[in-house]
Amino acid sequence: MGLKHQTPKSSSSNFFSCRYSTIFTLLLLFTSFFLFLASLRNLQEPFFWADYTQFNGDLRDAKFPWNKLCFGPTFEKLKIAVFSKTWPVGAAPGGMERHASTLYHALASRGHEIHVFTVPSDRRPRWDIHEGNLHVYFAANDHGSVNISLAFDVFNKVNENGAFDYVHTESVSLPHWRAKMVPNVAVTWHGIWYEIMHSKLLQELLSNPKWQLSDPMTELHEAMPRLVEEIRFFKSYTQHICISSSAGEVLVNIYQLPQRNVHVILNGVDETEFTPDQEAGAKFREKYGVPANVSIVMGVAGRLVRDKGHPLFYEAFSSIVRRHPGVFLLVAGSGPWRRRYTELGPNVKVLGALEPLELSKFYNALDVFVNPTLRPQGLDLTLIEAMQSGKPVLTPNYPSIVGTVVVDEEFGYTFSPNVKSFVEALESAIRDGPNVLKRKGLACKKYVVSMFTATKMASAYERFFLCMKNTKYCQYPLPTDC
């Protein structure tokens, strides 16, 4: 992320700017370290040894992801309104759009009446979608974003034909000043400003390692007021769903929200779409010209932009490819760094943006999936998709990742977001070789099937909305539960 450069007006203002930056950085590092230690404490008890099915009590008191529990069938049907920033249309939709589509299709298939107020991801005019229990209304303004007034007009008309049981918003798709007007509203946070500040700090450290004092770090200065503002308006939403355990801790410990109003439900991906398929992987390699004699095939997917960590990966892989000519890299995605990857020579194949149906084949063609992101917020679906396809992952050691996804070293490799640590992790994967990587991939598959499937996610959300409507559903286990 590029930073704005300004000429200091005086030595005094420069002094206070530097002083403010130092205090801010120390504060952020201290709290990040605290949360990281908390995530490490969670790792002391490996997932395979923890039996959360023994939980007995009110689900609102659960301090672990609801995905870890097994909810039984329900015969009560809900009418739910959803506000989402975009709805996936065409190739290469973003993670939030894919999450929304997966979740609401799954809830609709369970017999619930779902009404989504959004805009198409390609920002082009589209007809509304009505597929069984799923209804998607496109309400765009002149810029292609959600016109919240228009969306609320449609919302009110649908509500008049039978009141909604609950309203759900993906992040701030339903603005906080509108949320105050809705009696029953829950929000799922795919990223919070505390995590975004962490991201900006990492990008500053990477882009300005020698700390040039002439740079006032404008974006870091602007981040703290944004965080304070966010903490204040979060109380406008009744219930909060986090997609990682670390975000849940932040909302309780730093945002000071009541523990009973904060819940963790992890994202899931379609378990029928992402499955291990050795034959499909072999055909994909052949299709894109991967030599048969390579030692290891690595892969990276997503938008090829700066904040996704591609400058970091480019530098690290440049070092790796010189020492290990048998390592091959497949790059799926589009963006400014596409051209740079082609400069790395014949060991790199840039595929461009893949259609959703091609993604599963892409993962199956790999020995290890690499996610170099500099954005420690939310929960990247590519990690879950790769693990669901039976592949180990190589990813930064952010609290949201090591506390929720890569909770065991058997699932892959983690690194600090700097070139030296990244190279060391890549070297470890190369040293282990295809056989060890395959074993790690099997462990990944076993874990994600128990936690990150669309079925587990939809079941948890279903129980959440039922609990919010009728407290009898807050008790676990019910006679119908597994």
UniProtKB/TrEMBL annotation:
Residue ranges constituting the Glycosyltransferase subfamily 4-like N-terminal domain according to the UniProt record: 93-271
InterPro entries referenced in this protein's UniProt entry, alphabetically: Glyco_trans_1 (IPR001296), Glyco_trans_4-like_N (IPR028098)
Residues passing through the membrane, by range: 20-40
SUPFAM superfamilies, alphabetized: UDP-Glycosyltransferase/glycogen phosphorylase
Alphabetized GO MF terms: glycosyltransferase activity
Entry keyword Metal-binding: no
The organism's place on the tree of life at top rank: Eukaryota
Boundaries of every Glycosyl transferase family domain copy: 296-433
Keywords: Glycosyltransferase, Membrane, Transferase, Transmembrane, Transmembrane helix
Name of this chain's protein: UDP-Glycosyltransferase superfamily protein
Organism: Prunus dulcis (Almond)
